[in-house]
Predict the structure.
Amino acid sequence: MENKFKYSLDNKRYHTWNYHLQTLFGEKVFKVALNGGFTCPNLDGTKGIGGCTYCLSGSGDFAGNPAMDVVSQFEEVKTRMHKKWHEAKYIPYFQANTNTYAPARVLRQKFEPVLALPGVVGLAVATRADCLSEEVLDYLSELNERTYLMVELGLQTVFDETGERINRCHTYAEFLKGYEKLVKRDIRTCVHLILGLPGETREMMTESAKAVARLKPACVKLHLLHILKGTKIAEQYGRGEFETLTLSEYVNIVVDCLEYFSEETVIQRLTGDGGRDSLIAPLWSLKKFVVLNEIDKEMVRRDTYQGIRFGELW
């Protein structure tokens, strides 16, 4: 079937991150994942302890080594990434833990050195919506005026009962307050959702996608729940408290979600990367390109596109 989706360079039926960056910068751009040495309020006791139940190493498994300074991390990760893409520009991505959970002066010490490096065209900052103080928002606004800035918010689900189960330690209402603060300052925002969280049905996952779609964020990331060794959720899974999604279930839920996001919302990710040595389940997720191909095939089978049901949300 002919692909009529306009935000596509490679016959995808959704608005890819690659399309967005290639169109904006005119060349390949990739993220360089870093660990700024931050913590989280649900790790240090401010709101909770232990972190989110699925989290290992602050959700920065592929970020740099926190024992190194951020510039050294950048150079090391960049070199590794260049084995796949030889020519490219860079967006440093402060990925691990909550990267606005510190005074603005500390953020400056972390962010500014990598922003000054050759070939850097922007900055991505992963954080929580309840960790956006006014002084931090002022600094983010300043950054937004002089570079391409993307603030990534880990929502995961709009259902607070699930949030409590995974020890998220903030509510959906708190998320909305933080999100609106960023929107009012015209700061691009990427919202993260996790599909397959314990106790959630296909309908619940789709409802989370619908709620986020109504916000019309700049970007969305859809993650598959990975069960990783050493996490609280691995203990729950080992006790048989829930099951992980099958490949077919995941593919169908992803396509359900894509149909509701505005075609202008960039889809940064449709699956996740679980380390081969740390992943317990689902093992089918190790074949990332198979997962992506199955999503493409299901969209063709349905003859559907991102945003085809966006208008139904109102």
Q: What stands out?
A: Residues 125 and 151 are 5 Å apart (CA to CA). The chain has a mean pLDDT of 93.
